[in-house]
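quick one
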Amino acid sequence: MINVRWGRGQCPCVPDVVTAMQMMYDVNRVRKDFPILARQVYGKPLVYLDNGATTQKPRCVVEAMVDEYYNVNANVHRGVHFLSQQATDLHEASRESVRKFINARSVNEIIFTRGTTESINLLAFSFGESMVKEGDEIVVSAMEHHSNIVPWQMMCARKGAVLKVIPMTDDGELQIDEYVKLLNEKTRLVCCTHVSNVLGTVNPVKEVVRIAHEQGVPVLVDGAQSTPHFAVDMQDLDCDFFAFSGHKMYGPTGIGVLYGKEEWLDKLPPYQGGGEMIKNVSFEQTTYNELPYKFEAGTPDYIASHALATAIDYVTALGMDNIFRHEQELTRYAMDCMKEIEGMRIFGPVEGHDAVISFQVGDIHHLDMGTLLDRLGIAVRTGHHCAEPLMRRLGIEGTVRASFGLYNTREEVDVLVEGIKRVAQMF
Ligand code: PLP
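structure w/ pyridoxal-5'-phosphate:
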């Protein structure tokens, strides 16, 4: 018998956490699942507040990868032998875990990619090739990450289409009345982020979808910054496409998902050729595989898919609602403390902020602030956060961004606030 230590739903570090969760969200206990949080930088305890860029990994996710490499590793789908079948079973069980996690109707709607960026590029190519012609319009919002702008610009350049932008208010909220006016018979697709990686704005994507659907226009939601923080439901949102990354939700790097409604994915042509996306090949003609394989060329990262499913088991056992409550409470606490700092400017909406706080203090350059906070052991992100058009809209070059995860604590917020004050005093 091959020694696979756990299958789906049997993540080893989960049972302890579940017991704790039944009582309350015990963040100190949760932190023990993340070995990296115990380390020091520059002789100071690490305060990791760069979760919007990538999250740390619980032990069970790393162990799932090691375990599969040591005990199961074989290429998936193609082998008749035992290991290949076992690796295939794990990979396909992971697809089912993702389906359940986002409440998609079918596993045929779950395409494994390398991450949000690749998911959007896949769609921009396939959708662009088959659905967009000269003069057509693609709508994006003013607060998109470059990954949800550039693939559409590239596609527009190829097809002679035009990019339109939903404007936002100074507080970082989408102007829905202006959005309605943008839609017309030339609109082919609306692309909107669920949560802004800079402002923390939680966009009303359900409304965005409903309005677009009234005009017969499909919608892509960029879920890179929502899936780590609260439960998402494809059938409830009713979006046509949804993209997210494993590494931002406690899973490994190099794996992500493109969700698409089956009726759309059926219509779209493949993105890349080779491997599992093929049914039959001759020099005269090639026929393509069924969904979801039609969009998965080459050997998939079956180790990462299994580890992503382990991360899903992990956050599910903690409870997405518990994670949301914990992070909301922490974000509110941080906002309240930070507001008291002299010269503090916090970007984004006052209410309904997700676990991301972008700020500037007086005229201290964001890079100086970030570098000096780093020396205190505090990891934050600085710069334009891959959202240069948004920076231009705000009239700034960049911000400092603290982004929270399920393991951050009030004490860490206190360290951040004291750190900002110390840096401010130096200037
Ligand atoms: N979209 C948003 C909103 C993001 O925050 C990010 C990453 O920061 C991306 C897309 C790109 O994600 P990835 O680099 O995992 O492809």
